[in-house]
Amino acid sequence: MNGTAKGTWHAPGRVNLIGEHTDYNEGFVLPFALPQGITAEGERRDDGLLELHSGGQREVVELDGLAPGRVRGWAAYPAGVAGALAEAGYLVGGATLRFTSDLPTGAGLSSSAALECATALALTGLYGVKADRRELVKITQRAENAYAGVPSGILDQSASLLCERDHALLLDCRTGLSAQVPLDLGEHRVLVVDTGVRHSLDDGRYADRRAECEKAAGLLGVPALRDVEDLAASLSRLVDPVLRRRVQHVVTENHRVQATVGLLKAGAAPEVGAMLTASHLSLRDLYQVSWPQADVAVEAAVTGGARGGRMIGGGFGGSVIVLVHRDRIARVRQAVDEAYAARSWRPPSYLEAVASPGAARLS
Ligand code: ADP
Ligand code: MG
């Protein structure tokens, strides 16, 4: 075995610049990795147990007989990775894993994928198991879907495992193929506004959206909404106004991802702001997954001088991103703070999203 008795691995959270609710429709997304993430300090052990520590909590899981549904709560994510590795034929044994995080949880910055990806690198690293990153994307996604019970696409895990510094990742969620897109924002910055509202992806609303999209694709006779070519003709074939709205969002959002890549390649980063705002309005009015604090943050930020902004993540809580000239960050923050205060909402928290490297071994 070429493993290592102990080591430390880090997996980042992510911001998805654009392409929301397109991943499970086999479309396109454009995430980049954050400097913030989850670190796993790992040590091999030979008793077949997975001992997991995080934030003062300790969970012990037996690897033998690990199956979806056996482990609940936060430990389902790392245990799910061990289970999914075994299912895929990658034999890893017991370990003690100590997690530390500087990523807010449930903020739409993908702490769950960071937890899974840090675990995947730690377990494969400790046991000298060679699995390529694309394979690990599938394994960590399986952990989230089957073991944690969240029916998410490959966006978050791909971002954590495949992103590179100063680049966004253009990911085709149908093929899993990706391309690095240089993210040169010039004097502009991406500011994350954590609205403080917490979502739960397993509360059913996310699953509802997926089911609506599948139904619409079935009615339109296409494998996935990614394949809708003539939007107007497709909309006219759908009777249900709800399904029409969902389709319109997914199709136009895929176009916005491509347009954003075009703007970045043309050195027109500030114009990405308009794409972000268009995405937000579509998520608010057509896909209907935004929440009041996100709507107010986007509106106040734009009024305060930002180039644009949008909610990120599955919806109903989490964060907003805003594209803003660095000299206007303070003004935009003040505008958002004031808009929140006027509604007696708790002030949001902020972090600057700097495109950072993907998951890696630290020591
Ligand atoms: P997001 O991925 O946007 O942060 P999710 O709801 O997908 O939100 O995942 C959050 C869940 O991931 C938490 O409820 C917890 O179960 C798990 N999690 C994230 N970070 C940690 C951590 N540092 N320690 C333990 N569990 C964590
Ligand atoms: Mg998550």
UniProtKB/TrEMBL annotation:
InterPro entries: Galactokinase, Galactokinase_CS, GalKase_N, GHMP_kinase_C_dom, GHMP_kinase_C_sf, GHMP_kinase_N_dom, GHMP_knse_ATP-bd_CS, Mevalonate/galactokinase. PROSITE patterns: GALACTOKINASE, GHMP_KINASES_ATP. Residues 5-40 form the Galactokinase N-terminal domain. Residues 263-341 form the GHMP kinase C-terminal domain. Pfam families: GalKase_gal_bdg, GHMP_kinases_C, GHMP_kinases_N. Residues 78-162 form the GHMP kinase N-terminal domain. Keywords: ATP-binding, Carbohydrate metabolism, Galactose metabolism, Kinase, Nucleotide-binding, Transferase. Belongs to the GHMP kinase family. GalK subfamily. This is Galactokinase. It comes from Actinocorallia aurantiaca.
